[in-house]
């Protein structure tokens, strides 16, 4: 699934030509390969050999294939096949070109509009999963893939919880009391080993949004410390790190509520609440016009209220501060070089 420069290694499985390893997770290794019958690029996830020898893990791996194979959504990675060969279990999947949101976060927080858009895509995928009676249980930036075309898809259903048909006598793969997921993103009930429903995925998605906007997590520490904190205290407000996003505080507070029933009715309702806020005019911003670059140094002095003779650095800093006041969600990074170039040109005249 992950697309980066591959290493020239891979297993020998009939019908596939391997081109290298793309990534590795708790349950298996993902390779780039070509399905030779169709000459189709694919991703092949091979269960770790030491796990394949354990019947429970082999069953879980097959269940992941069945979960993903049932979902028909452009916001969920597509599964092509589940196969076994000489004791090896593997999934054949859509090859994703792009990067995970975790990789994107390494370059810093996302702009508000983009963060809400990526969360919206993930919500679409999770809603399709929930409609089939499945809960992902490990929603996090590393399992959300940002494609080159701008769409985000949900991946890695290795620990997904599946509702069994009525009358099924199969023992659950996750015993009661066992904690599944990543503590930083897991809902309070999940951290306590209780049953996680769709509301747990909503909670995790809200944590993802918090991180996309701030570059920080609401809760950090050891698994035990995080569990205690989530059970005993509310998460920090988004505005404590990004004051300009204070209008999002009520929405995130509800999605991150300690009790599942206090959260939104579903992930799509959560995203709809975010979109509704973005559609409203920001009271602090008002209906300010789009920023127009000043053409002369004298105009800068007048607009920015700086003294005549201010240095270029002072002018640029004052102008950026003014832009930040007018449009806190849209600081025009690409205009800074243009502004500097224009100011520099006028100083030389």
Helix/strand layout:
Elements: E1 16-24, E2 28-35, E3 40-47, H1 49-52, H2 55-70, E4 79-85, E5 88-94, E6 98-100, H3 101-105, H4 112-130, E7 134-135, E8 144-147, E9 152-154, E10 161-162, H5 188-191, H6 198-214, H7 223-232, H8 249-255, H9 267-279, H10 297-304, H11 312-326, H12 335-348
Antiparallel strand pairs: 1-2, 2-3, 3-5, 4-5, 6-8, 7-10, 8-9
Task: Please outline what is shown here.
This protein is α+β, with helices and mostly antiparallel strands and about 350 residues long.
- Portion in helices: 25-40%
User: How is the biggest beta sheet arranged?
Assistant: 5 strands, antiparallel
CATH superfamily of the largest domain: Transferase(Phosphotransferase) domain 1
* Strand content range: 15-25%
Order of neighbouring strands in the sheet with most strands: 1-2-3-5-4
Radius of gyration: 24 Å
Please identify, by name, the CATH architecture of the largest domain: Orthogonal Bundle
Query: Class of the largest domain, according to the CATH hierarchy?
Result: Mainly Alpha
Q: How many DSSP-defined strands?
A: 10
Q: Tally the helices: what do you get?
A: 12
Described by the principal axes of the CA atoms, the overall outline is globular
Q: Please report the distance between the alpha carbons of the first and last residues.
A: 55 Å
